Fold this protein.
Amino acid sequence: MKFEAITIKDIAKTLGLSTSTVSRALRDSYEISPETKARVIEYAREMNYRPNPIALSLKEKRSSSIGVLVSEIANSFFSQAINGIESVAQQKGYNVVIAQSKEDFNREVSALQYLASRSVDGILLSVSSETSDFSTINGLYSKGMPVVCFDRVVESIETHKVIVDNFMAAYNATNHLIKNGYKKIACISNAALLTISRERVEGYKKAMADKKMPFDEKSVCYCPHGGLIYEEVEDVMNQLIKSKNKPDAVIACSDKITTNIMRYCKQKKVLIPDKLALIGFSNLDFTELLSPSLSVVRQPAFDMGKKAAELIITMIESKRPVLDFETVILPAEIMQRASSEKKKIAKPL
Amino acid sequence: MKFEAITIKDIAKTLGLSTSTVSRALRDSYEISPETKARVIEYAREMNYRPNPIALSLKEKRSSSIGVLVSEIANSFFSQAINGIESVAQQKGYNVVIAQSKEDFNREVSALQYLASRSVDGILLSVSSETSDFSTINGLYSKGMPVVCFDRVVESIETHKVIVDNFMAAYNATNHLIKNGYKKIACISNAALLTISRERVEGYKKAMADKKMPFDEKSVCYCPHGGLIYEEVEDVMNQLIKSKNKPDAVIACSDKITTNIMRYCKQKKVLIPDKLALIGFSNLDFTELLSPSLSVVRQPAFDMGKKAAELIITMIESKRPVLDFETVILPAEIMQRASSEKKKIAKPL
DNA sequence: AATATTTACGCAAACGATGTCGGGAATTAT
DNA sequence: ATAATTCCCGACATCGTTTGCGTAAATATT
């Protein structure tokens, strides 16, 4: 089964003109007489002619499409970011091709090669939590493929980056827990390799240090798959709960980790916030509807996507090599809800 | 800024061969001597040569990509379905291009034209809630563009369709409410135009009729934007709550309607399930974490995506026009939780 | 030795659209 | 009446790849 669109050749044949004349008529060239133009345009409209973008891509060496590589689209942060990207892309006449790594290094590499070979004009990248070898993206970038990193950036490549102030976000979230009376605060983070993990953990540590809170190296845990797998969150939680330094609050550093902690607590009947307070990074739309309503660090995903898309398009359309790079740092928002409310002091019996 | 990949021409030039020889060597043609083959293959590997898919598309008149048009990717049902689609597509060597209509007719039309002109080899379509004029998709289809509908189907085109047994799902969900002691059950549905709406409403009506429940035409309400806009849900709920035939339970027929009803009830302090029981279509991952835990009708989104992708690929690869169409009907799953638990009989004071 | 066959490669066309060049016809200038 | 200038339009090359056809040289057959 095949779909054959009408071409400029077909028009030329039926109208008894040459392809060049038709092409010029459609592009409203001054070299074509008004009558011929009218004839061509009318017929093209009638036949619903649309230029074949594949032929154009081949000729122009550009596809007017940008590739987006994220870990998973079924993740509210990324789907919101993609919405932002699309809103800009559409307006500027670009197509968006989406690829997922599912936090898998090999899938990421093949997705990157796929996008490059698919001739996207630029790539918006948020690396997988498994990636420590950046040679593929570096290779592409050094050969001239425009790349903009967002959220999870690649430090080894010098380009535009769009991130959230992860340090401050984690610092403030931790502070919020401290202010609400929690003493033994654990931090469950995404894979240690990720920049966002490092920044968030540092924010957490700084807040703890500033407030002179006792700090145990063991209260910082990492989930190599960013909580995508329930079991890794379960393991970490089991370990924390059973440790002698059992925490009374947790800050979770990714969407999936946050919800999986809630799932865990519900399953193991760990009461939130009474037995364990929780604040987590999340871009879910209805965290206030959860039980208990969830305190979150919310990233401006849509705006991040928009900004990243704008930057990649500037890069693509720049005549000369871009040398001056921008790192856009947006603030995250902390929304305080029941899951981290003021600690109730246990009344002496 | 431009990314220039190595071509067969470059290889031919450096190796002192013709492009045809290089092409044939890479495709392991018998016409090329083993030594030449080895030289070419080695050099191509070294230079990380990849055939330009755009040139191939132009020649082969196919792009090895399929277009997916849904209302919104930031909707768990669709993002799960897309995951299913991608899993099949990747395995069969197809690329997936995603487009969103945002429940807007004009955006849908331009997205369809975009996909067609982008030379996708086939389209997976779930129509927007606004669409009543199907001429664009009909036109494309009649010109030979393979189309498979999923979830929200277009009745006027005869092709493969993948749906859920909406009638039974709604019938069972309504029955579940009746069994749990609810008497005045309202049904809040997506746009009346959609097939899924009609089927679901019919299932609801049939269940009510079978159990001889009093039925009021006014207890069926529609949200033209599928609940994407909070206000439309708010309006409908206000109307229901204020009517003299105030319902004691609601069945919600889309993801967004369901969560927006919860949001409404939380805001207006309408206790679920005591004042109003709720069961809704939803593919959220953590409905059990909501407050109260939410009873849902869950569609097998991933499997629907998989099946739809398989069907479109069969259609694309079929040598002769496909005439025998399949309508795959999958069962939905009802998950009973607190939001629709057995009605408490008010104790007389 | 003369002819037939095989081997190994190059040439050129094609996919759809655009842009450069060039040229014939009509009009205007000399 | 001739030269110059417009005006309109067609031929051709190009983008990267594949493929049918042609062919020189090498080998095989008689």
Summary: Residues 7-9, 19-20, 23-24, 27, 51-52, 54-56, 58-60 of chain B lie near DNA strand D (CB under 10 Å from a C1'). The mean pLDDT of chain B is 93. Chain B touches chain A through 60 residues (CB under 8 Å).
